[in-house]
Give the backbone structure.
Amino acid sequence: MDSSSTRHSNSKKRKKNATTTNTNQKTLGVAWGSKSFSASSSSSRKSPFSDFGSYMAHKNSKLHNQFDSEASASSSRKTIFSGVSIFVDGFTVPSSQELRGYMLKYGGRFENYFSRHCVTHIICSNLPDSKVKNIRTFSAGLPVVKPTWILDSVAANRLLSWVPYQLEQLASNQPKLSAFFTLKSSKMSEDTFTNALCQVEPDYEDSFPRVGQPKDRHPSEAGEMVEVSRLIGNESNDIASEKPDVIEDPISERVICDEEKLAEANSSETNNERNTEGGLDPTFQEPSTSVSIPFSDNQNAHQFPSSEATGSSKQCHSTLTDPNFVENYFKSSRLHFIGTWRHRYRKRFPNLSTGLNDGISNINASDIKSVIIHVDMDCFFVSVVIRNHPELLDKPVAVCHSNNSKGTSEISSANYPARSYGIRAGMFVRDAKALCPHLVTFPYNFEAYEEVADQFYSILHQHCNKVQAVSCDEAFLEFTDAEVEDPELLASSIRKEIYETTRCTSSAGIGGNMLMARIATRTAKPNGQYYITRERVDDHLNQLPIDVLPGIGYVLQEKLKKQNVHTCGQLQMISKTSLQKDYGMKTGEMLWNYSRGIDYRSVGIIQECKSIGADVNWGVRFKDMKDCEHFLINLCKEVSLRLECSGVQGRTFTLKIKKRRKNADEPAKFMGCGDCENLSHSVTIPLATGNVEILQRIVKQLLGCFYIDVKEIRGIGLHVSRLENADTSKQEKYTLKSWLTSGSASVEKLKYQMGHNKHNLDCTNSASSHGSFHSQGSSFQMDNKIPNIQVSGDPISAPPPLCHLDVEVIRNLPSEVFSELNEVYGGKLIDFIAKGKDRCESSRSHGNSFLEHDAAYNQEELPYSDPIPRNKLFPENKAMQHERVPGTGHGSYSKDTPNSKFERDDLLPSSLSQVDASVLQQMPEDLKAVIVEHLPAHRGKDFSSTPDICPSRINQDSQGVNPSKNCPGIVNHALNNSLWAGNPPSWVDKFKDSSCLRKLGEIYHRSGFSSQLSSVLPQFISEFHQLDLIHEIYDETVNMMCELLRQYVKVKIERDIEEIYICFRLLKRFAAKSQFFFRVYNDIFPFLQAAVDDNYGGSLSMPS
Amino acid sequence: MTYAREAHPCPKFEASVTMQRKENQTPQGKAASVLVEFLEVAITAIVFLKGFYPSGAFERRRYMNLVVQKARQPQLRYYIHASASGLLPFLLKGMVDRVAVIFFNSDNVPLEKFVFRFAVNLSYRSAVEEADLEISLRSFLSKLLVSESLTKKLTPDCRWEITCFFRSLPETGASKEANLWIPTEDTKQWEQPPLITPIRSMSSDPLFLQLYIEHPSLSASSVL
């Protein structure tokens, strides 16, 4: 055939194909429409389209027309998928073409090219790691669903919720539980919905779109509601697309209410979040902000100019010597105290936030006049310490870490007498002593601070229901004019009470807004109060230096000074527009407002932290990478702890490093950071986390980005930002965890999928147990139907003795299951329940036997005739197994993951013999490996890799039956003498004695016995490599290995030459490196070739 | 005993070879009919892989959700199709040992053989899991599609044919189909045992299938 003509006609045809009816080819080469450059380059060359974009637009419209015409041709009335438009990504079963067919037939749409606007669901079976990591970019927030969703929907003849079909890769952390049991999750969301509603109410002034239409919530207006919920659903999807339970699927009639609520609940959550994240009070001290108040070290009187640092406990001063450096560091850090104080405060006054919000909601801020009182303790850190030393009241006193007269630590706080000597916070003690020789220094007393702060706040809360805490010693109170006749009187009574209770003085500033109140406090100090009435605002501000205004820092101040602006009065003369031009919109407006005493902030809005983190800038010295990593691990723990305390998780992680500047000398302050460059790297991940292990991984990665010599590091900080509320995103996870750890009783229930004791469980958990319930029910039925099929007549399928039953479980069984079970036990069950409250322990064996029952059943039906059965379940059997698998598989999953938390014995069966092989088989590989690894090897004998050949269901605990007798799969095998007979193969046992080859057995064991030798060999080689050097190679070892391989060849030669080929290619490669394998290979190779020749009439080609 | 299909089929085959999938309801029958279909694809893939014909002679199709080639030239397509489906009755009887796609040089000396080795478990009685079978076959096929590097370059002026190795003599006259297979006597054989390069082995009850390439061993090729 003339090739050129062929090609020509072919390309012609192809072009035609692209525009006519044959769509088979179209999706093949194109993954993501607009990115597919190859498609563009080949077609646009000849095409009349001006550019790729118009070509694609044209193509898409043609495809749509095509689809429409085909759809109308198929003339099916069914519209299951109306409104659904899928995009199929990558390889799926069934194929994208079949899915397209379904969509054609049932009124859906099928997009050939991804578009955020047309596509509603992305269908795929598997995602590459990069897409999972960047799921937002990939999916644009759309649901990513498995193709079975479509099949099941077609089978059910209605649109099912896609949630249970979400891709596991994405849903792996928690949604599985909730998603699996839609019923429950919707119920739960209903709760959150109502909760959220209450919380949202007060925020109505904010222009959130939903808020204007409170009526929409009435179910009567269903149509409109759908509209709204869709809108909101979309919106919340945009904002919080990571939240897997966002549902936006207004089409499905059945679940519509739930979904609506879900969507609303979600949107209100987001709303909350947004509000709280809204404006950050500039005065608020985030735990993470580096505060530039230097302070001192309490042991060593050296000096340091660090911006944030503290001393550490006793002798351990640097990361070099103290293994718990990080922990100790923060224990004695004042800034840490301030930073974490907020959480303690929140916990102590938990009712505040809601109460406050209620208050606010009734007030239209601009209309009702209110008065703000700013209360601030006078030099809190000093006065708390000296309240028990009245004689020091008038003496200069300072607080610092170290009392050492060498004076190399820093003053962190000084009282007014001391300040009059010119002593300021941040000064070295040495210098301070020079100014004031009789200065008395005290160390911190954190317990006292906490105590006083608590007293302080309880007083404030008694007087006012709108308190905004700024710090442990500083707060704003808001009163309406109606409430208070004379604010000055009120302020003085509060101050008096504070003094009487705490024996510390405080000052109060009173003003029309927070800004003025704060400015007033400045005048009031110390131990006084000042009221800036509305009339006095202008006077007061006129001469006020600009740096007093919040939000004006050093840089801004310098800039303004250059413009010759020193006071607020001068600032007032500059127009708003020019301020905004020079300093940006926001800052400009702020300056303009503040200089006129205008402040719109209102008291009581709880500030959420924007970031949480920890810095250590003192005592950081690393010898090598190991030190550094160890330090980072601890830092991660600390940060993770803080995240947990605040109940948030973050997505962006920033690692900050202080690197010693070149030529910088050792800092004046002992172990200080000295002159440093500040470096930072950050990374953002798609799913918020607070998990310490993930943190550690990320941090390690980040550290790698610096390319820094660890010896140069003088300070490290880790900050987490883009915080999300952990409660909303991780609710299930948390409860599950707490559930798991809450007590051994409930733990037992979980692991055997029998957790029916609902008393302390939330709906998620009950949902999960509900699921396992069914699986259990089905196994019961099986048992009942076939109690006597057992060939050997052994009693496995008989119900477990009464004493082994868990009362709790039985009691919670659904009534029909219970009555059935009761029959089985001849009615004894009722009595049993009545008396047996104290027998919960036995639930374990009970659960075990259930599992074993149905597996035993499966196994009995299997054909033993077949030596290598793979998929030998009868259809009906299979169906049952399917039914069972989600429950059991799931249970075993939970079984495994938290196993560090409690005793393994509790959770895992005591040996592999008790593992249901069929369940194990269904588990993901990694999970399988972990389980196998955790089970005692020596008892793994009767464990089978193929679920049916060797039933592993022997109930040793309750039946006391010798396992081997129940393994019909093994018994009659001709290969009895072979090393590869049995499961695990007998060589695993035999090789135990060999120091070298035992390893192979272990690795093979770890792989779950299911793998072929070729998959195990590489790992063995890598581990063997060390052994090779240490141990002498005995002939015996070589012989054993040869024999093993020889028999493997025998087993495999007939049916799997590929496996043998791979093994020997590997061996040959290893032979070049290892003496041992060289000998083995040379010994065995002739045999191999002979075997191949026998079977295939040739020799294996072994290219080097 | 080997039989070969002639590479240039005559039109008379067209009427005689028909697929009879409906009637084969035993597990073996089901597996065999899947296998026959699969063979057709695999053989086409081999021919395509070897670059025997210009790539324009093939068009892309989807089979088991994989992109494969299909011959566009009717005769070629028919030859492969008829050869594969002609195996069906023999497969069911378990008579087929191997099917080879053999490439010859101009002297009729085989240069390369792609050998499919079958085993059908005739005693298997359970239902065939088509999904499992399909997964196995797909992995088989995907390995085949990337095996070009294992093959040798074609010499100019070569030809190819499909040869079947039977375990026993087909009863001539038993069916029309059996007559379509011609005993091969004139093919030159290698004097030395060939070198075998396995490509893929799979076992999915009741079907066992292996594919490997045979090349003349170095000494043998020098002899010929």
In short: The longest helix of chain A spans residues 52-74. The interface with chain B takes residues 1, 3, 6-7, 9-10, 24-25, 28, 91-95, 97, 863, 865-866, 868-875, 1054-1061, 1092-1093, 1096-1101 of chain A (CB under 8 Å).
